[in-house]
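Input/output pair, single chain:
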Amino acid sequence: MCGITGIWCFNEVGRFQMTNLEKSTRSLEHRGPDDHGTWNDHLVGLGHRRLSIIDTSDLGHQPMQILDGRYIMVFNGEIFNYQQLRKELESKGVRFESETDTEVIMHLYAQEGKACLSRLNGFFALAIYDTQKKTCLIARDRIGIKPLLYYQDEFKVLFASEMQAILAYGMDQKVDKDALHYYLQLNYTPAPLTMVEGVKKLMPGECIEIIDQEIRLSRYYHVDETRSPLTELSYEQAIKELKSRLDASVQKRMMADVPLGAFLSGGIDSSVISSLAARHTDHLSTFSIGFEGNKFFDETQYAEAVAKKIGSNHTTFRLSNDEIFSNLDDFVRHIDEPFADSSSLPVYILSKKTRRHVTVALSGDGADEIFSGYNKHAAWYEMENGGLKSLMIKLMLPMASRMPKSRSGFLANKMRQVMRYEEAKKLSPKDRYWFLASLGSAEQSNNLVREPSLDSEYFERWMTGMNEYKDINDLMKMDAAFVLPNDMLKKVDMMSMAAGLEVRVPFLDHELVEFVQRLPFEYKINGKMRKRILQDTYRDILPPELYRRPKKGFEMPLLDWLKSSLRGELDQYLFDQERIEDGGVFNWNQIKNLREKLHSSNPEDSHAHVWALYVFQKWHSRHF
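Output:
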């Protein structure tokens, strides 16, 4: 795992930014603390920071060159079938200097060009420059596990793993109002948008080819929609196949020349991954995080039960509010654009503490999106199929409309869910998806800002998958394409890389994802169970108490924090009329209304909106 950066200059004006290549590379030091390097010729420059995982010798130094310097590459990621590809290349007479997957990719590219991307099983962001043909290939992995940003004008193309490495080249900065519009609805900025105008994210499965002064953006990977659903596969056969595929995925991702462990939250997903990993080593280390004095958000007892059953060397990090808040400024320093998934702060702390023990950690990310793990999946199923839950929700509506609603308590959260269910049920599949994926409406977003966005292009592009909605499988495919790379995977990459920790996600082997997506939706969800096939497949190896607990995400006691410990921070950065009006971004009257809602007896989702605005203000004050 590493950080990469590069510049392609179209002319001498663009070359003025070449002097910032070293500065850009240094800005990625946290992603690769073990080694660094740069290379440049007259018009092309590449930079790399290395976190050594496979072949930790100097032979893995990047930018790497092969074939007498014809090909030069920077690479961030891991390729899990590289040994198989290496043997294939060796049979064709290729000789290798190192044991790295980087060198395998380069020789594969030398033989197959851009088509080599479809041969890679793993996660990556990479750039390969052909000094003879004067071409460059820049690519991001299929699922979007690794990030890659780029910027283009008439003088140059810039690319990097993170925003600060792009900004280090000295470009002007301006908030992208379309990105801000969607951030205020979603709490994150979906690709291809970024919060800095002109800087874009490569979409998962996209690549850029630079040939002379021509830029070609294309998609090298699509989930194959033409393949028929696996309806001929019985449920029992599907369980057997899933068991084989997931075990193989975990085993591949345990390949490392450095210490490896696993995140263990106590949920089904991380428990499955940790249990399978424990079969392939005699000394698995597992790590979980808990919150002192807040049992509603603490799940460490389940993690410890799993650790005991699988015999792992388990460490629980118990965090006080003071410790969490002491990391707040560091957290903001490491987010390359506003990002308001509140669980990202404890993920950062977990990653820092885990890094003291291991260099690589397995995680259970991705299972919710592909197997149907979210509350919205259960709600959607009820909307389409009816049943006892729908009847109960109907009976609860009069009470829910009068009761306080928020995410910070069991009853208040249930009332919130009842009201959202009733509103979502009335919408078309496309509008319903957006409603359930977002925390606020477009109208609320535009009311908050001084310069509203009228964009609909991005919304229509993102929601294409719901235009011909057939069944709940399409909902899960949307989550895998939209929520997963833009929220969950970005959070894990950003926070783990801030600590120099590589995180691997066995559920997101692309062949496994394709298999699960082709299964009938009834195998994943019914009126009684979410993640049905995943839970049934591993029921015999997990503690029974995991199946008796309610589903909870990795959420934080955000409402309590904002009303107490973080009140001073809010008064400084957000609830300061002069600061807001001088900033020129937000409308003070709307901010004031949110403050009143936050401190009312019925806060609803106001704390999520306040947190998003606070994170934006902290980020904005740092970068602008």
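The mean pLDDT is 91. The first strand starts at residue 2 and ends at 9.
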